[in-house]
Amino acid sequence: MRRESGGRIDRTRTLRFRFDGRDYTGHPGDTLASALLANGVRQVATSVKLGRPRGIFAAGSEEPSALVQIEEPFPEPMLTATTVELYDGLVASGLPGQGRLATEPDPARYDATHAHCDVLVVGAGPAGLAAARAAARTGARVILADEQPEPGGHLLGTAEQVAGQPGTEWAAAVAAELAGLPEVTVLPRTTVFGHYDDNHLLAVERRTNHLGGAAPAHVARERVWRIRARRVVLATGAHERPIAFAGNDLPGVMLADAARTYVNRYGVLPGRRAVVFTTGDSAYAAAMDLVAAGVKVAAIVDVRPAPGAGWADRAREAGIEVLAGHVVTAAAGDGQVSSVLAGPHPETGAPAVGERSFDADLLLVSGGWNPVVHLFSQSGGTLRYDEALSTLVPGASRQAVEVVGAARGVFTLAGCLEDGATGGGAPAAAQAAGEPYWLVPSQDYRTHFVDLQRDVTVADVLRATGAGLRSVEHVKRYTTAGTAHDQGKTSGLLTTAVMAHALGVPVGELGATTFRAPYTPVSFAALAGRDRGALHDPVRVTALHEWHVAHGALFENVGQWKRPWYYPRPGEDMEAAVLRECRAAREGVAAMDASTLGKIDVVGPDAAELLDRLYTNMMSTLAVGAIRYGVMCRPDGMVVDDGTVIRLAEDHFLVTTTTGNAATVLDWMEEWLQTEWPWLRVHLTSVTDQWATVALVGPGSREVLAGLAPGLAVSAADFPFMTWRETEVAGMPARVCRISFSGELAYEINVTSWEGLALWEALMDSGAVTPYGTETMHVLRAEKGYPIVGQDTDGTVTPQDLGMSWVVSKKKADFIGKRSYARADTARADRKQLVGLLPEDPGRLLPEGTHLVELSSLPEPPVPMLGHVTSSYRSAALGRTFALALVSGGRARVGERLYAPVGDELVPVTVTSHVLYDPEGARRDG
Amino acid sequence: MAERRSPAAAFADRFATASKSGALTLAEIPFLRQINVRVDPESPAAADLGAALGVALPVSPGTAVRSGEVTVAWQGPDEWLVIGPEGYEAEPLRAALGDRHGSVVDVSAQRTTLLVGGPRAREVLAHGCAIDLHPSVFGPGAVAQTMLARAQVVLLPQQDGFLVLVRSSFAVYLAEWLLDAATEYVT
Amino acid sequence: MLLIPCPWCGPRDEAEFHYGGQAHVAYPADPGALSDEEWARYLFFRDNPKGSFAERWSHSAGCRRWFNAVRDTATNEIHAVYRVGEPRPVTP
Ligand SMILES: [Zn+2]
Q: Which residues form a coiled coil (chain C) (predicted)?
């Protein structure tokens, strides 16, 4: 219930919310957890495996228990009630361990930003604030990130004083000083969740979540910060840890410091009558704060025979019974705690009070403190088990990282302030540590929970060690302890300690499980940022793209490019459109946007020498003004790319690459040039985007070109195949190449990309030209048996396999790939070779990828596979379907019948030459 | 001359709208002359090219120098990008190089130039650019080839904002990205 | 995200670079003179140490220059970067 006064909540404003179908109110400053407790809601969820009632166990991101699903304003699963800031109109429900994703798209915006700083301070508690202030006062670029909405850290939950003023006021003053400095960035509501190599840290800033439905639509809801820091100060604090005893999962069992936070920070009484179970002094402070707030604290059960100096006396003065040398043996109740059983600590010699039972609705637990070493461990730092503190503390750093305050085991306020200000350099002063105590012995460990979220008990851990498991990593996987949403923040070390108990070894001997990012769950939406939808991956478009869109083209993705696939006319399906486009190219005149081909300018006295080394064929003999097709292979002899080489001058070439390979080929050429042959005097410059390229194809293409380029002598004699000319086309300076990828008379016209659209429109305005897309291009080239690298090849195919021995020079002393053609493997007669296939049913279209077999009926597997279909189309020119395939020993099989298993059918096909149309090449001159 | 169209021409209105708030200026500066120059920086040819440019080729990585309206930006140990107004010609540079080893390639249409200016320019770019854009380390006189969002760019810091040179085929993507990243600052 | 020091441009995010495998594996001067086994060794065999490894990187989104780096494969620490053609420096 809510206290009369106090807490960092705004009591002048009321927020309405609904939980599990019931309406409640709270105030700004509340979390969902504090508001539920204020309304007397004890049970929040049920557990994932056992269906046991679960309440609120902690007050921060270490919460293992109070899992909720947000329903409104937008569905969001698997949040903890302790980390959801309350807002008006919030609708939520408790979760039985698993949440439910939204079914509609998230309307919110998400983004990311990069940041650089001299010092990143993680955590704005006393140590972090002191560290940030010290760094900022030197003029350094500082980022201070903290997961809470306001600075102060542990001070927010206590009534402690700093420098003679309330701790929260001191924190606000320091934060204000920092915020006033131009080179300091203070990030509240920001969780640093990953610490990677070279001090690269990721943080997520929750910017509008706390506004609920009132969040402005144009502001990114969450932002991922990608921070590069010269130095990192981790002031991440500590988590209190639980103790394993019977019924320790009941609603009403709560970490002692969490109860203190609810009382002080949220003005909430988490119960009326409490018992405290502790191993150290810090829970006494919590008990005193609860008493001051009006909670009846019946007893403090302290495992130590002699509690810390002064604390027991102060407790007794406040009317609290102190049971030194005792333990809580069980929490009991129906759905929540109603009584607490205590008994003597069996291993101490303290005078026993005997078995006691207390009526209580709240049981505070403090098993000591674990420094939050997650980020330090992620950064590559080693962890060390500190016997005095009975916990893991940071050991050696691997990066420029310092750990200060409670995160390195400094548990006093004065110590944290000093530690932060001096950068954690000083050895931690000896301090009153609690007694290491983890597990209350029992005959029955089935309700001694170690991991509340995974429903893992001491009995489960004992089963794991009983099965012979000795490594903490193995026990983690066997029991799932520490693998839930909370990643074992409260359960990890406890599980290790229970193992150690079972195995009779010191806890420190077992080590720790690996801490992995993210520290707390991060939504995929935040990680995606604005890289989704249309911005998911760059869409590259040519200068002609707007025309294609306006004229109804459908598009194909080729690498990052959008290429027109085909241009259906009203009433046409793809098959009809492609057959029409193919006919236009073979019988009339057609044009394609070929601007996506990669283009590399190659210049220098040794340019021809470089190309001779990289291409399988000879380029140095190419005449100025001429063009040659070429193939590039890897040293293992396999084809990587093909294209044309244009000789612009004695020392100047233009190389084209396939659309998807432009960057790869440039990198490849640079790699050889820079790393193997740096003495070659050649420069390579990408000019892919400089030029728009239009392929003008078909028997009518010469006439169309002549109409637009009156200054160009276009006859076959004046402008032979595989040459280029510089001229004007439609008034634009252009380079026209006589290249054909279809077997027809064809030209490739290049103008600057600024003028590409004007060129294309001039061609279309000539009236006779049919635009065609990549599908038609594929059909036309396949009819001629021209392979597409990456479709008809897969990195295991040589030029010889493709039937292109003619492109492999016999004269050159060496070129990349040559030596491999002398390997036995590349000479095997049963290598897969490119052939054509004609289905015996001329209307039958084989799916690409279909396997090929020799047998007309399938025997028991394994069935010998001969190869597969790489390309398959309907051909207007052939009046039938056809395919290209890679077939074992294929060229020797021409004329043979093979079978293509399609579903349950074996489709008979005849092997042919891969050149199916105009094998004599009669059409290229028109 | 036929009608030219710049790669981000379709964005003129949306850029203008986004620039109204005063927080940010977005615009395409189309048709600038861009010339890729490759030459051994120690060679006499490099000195002659510097003379033709009116300023020595900068040899410190990541630096750009100006000569009147022309900027010469370091791109690599033997590579520079010369950026000039539309009428600037490559021919004098070709002549300065002569038939010595090197290259002068007109790449004006290879990339277009976007201006990202105004008080929030640095923040907008930081959403997609991993290098440190702080004026103490990346101010006028610097140049960087890097990634902005998922596009390769050449960044040139100006007195007020940045010039972003982007491949023509990526210009539509990057313009959409910039407008999206700008939303929070201009709404 | 590693921060890789390009010998020209200085430290840049790993995403700007392409990896080129083991350094100092030169293309044989006369491949035709090699036995199949020697050629296969050049083609297919590379070291895979735990610890310091000299490898090639290209600053592909930046200055497009190839260079060599000595990286500890266990910690990702880069002990040295050096230009192509320079000998591998002595590193820890
Ligand atoms: Zn570089």
A: none
